[in-house]
Write a structure and sequence with these properties.
The protein is mainly α and 148 residues long. It has a single domain, classed as Arc Repressor Mutant, subunit A. The protein is built from six helices and three strands, in the order ααβααββαα. Strands 1-3-2 form a three-stranded antiparallel β-sheet. β2 and β3 form a beta hairpin. The longest helix has 28 residues. The two termini are 26 Å apart.
Length: 148
């Protein structure tokens, strides 16, 4: 039985995304290692930075498409390292708000510089327009899957 073209293409992009995610996580782990961070910890800090405000662990998990429990473990580790603080949430007694610390803001700035240097090494290998189109396609696919 022939595989329908959409199913075949979806399978191919899924497998490639798995491989890409692994390579991106390896690169992020390498860049963040000497700050005591992993790619997962960096992602949590970045989600808070992009939000521009304190968030609950559940809100961070929704933004990242992850399970709340895994983000909670990561957030707790970040608190132990001095990269996050929890504060009371006036909207919910039990769901505390995670906030970046001065230390985490400085580390995020340093990591951004490292990431830019890493990207500069790759620059020119793939045209920017192709990367932008890939981003558009992946975002559309993510939105489609979020509705299912």
């Amino acid at each position: 039985m022939a595989v329908p073209p959409f199913a075949s293409a979806l399978n191919s992009i899924s497998l490639e995304c798995f491989r890409l995610t692994a390579r991106l996580n390896q690169a992020a782990d390498h860049m963040a290692r000497d700050f005591g961070l992993t790619s997962a910890r960096w992602q949590v800090l970045s989600a808070l930075e992009q939000a521009g405000r304190p968030l609950t662990v559940a809100a961070i998990a929704r933004l990242m498409g992850l399970k709340r429990q895994s983000v909670q473990r990561t957030a707790d580790a970040l608190v132990d390292l001095g990269y996050l603080e929890f504060s009371a949430n006036p909207a919910h007694r039990r769901a505390r708000l995670a906030t970046l610390t001065t230390r985490s803001r400085a580390v995020l700035e340093a990591l951004q510089q490292r990431q830019q240097a890493w990207a500069a090494e790759l620059n020119g290998e793939i045209p920017v327009a192709e990367l932008q189109q890939a981003t558009t396609t992946l975002a559309a696919l993510r939105k489609l899957l979020e509705t299912r």
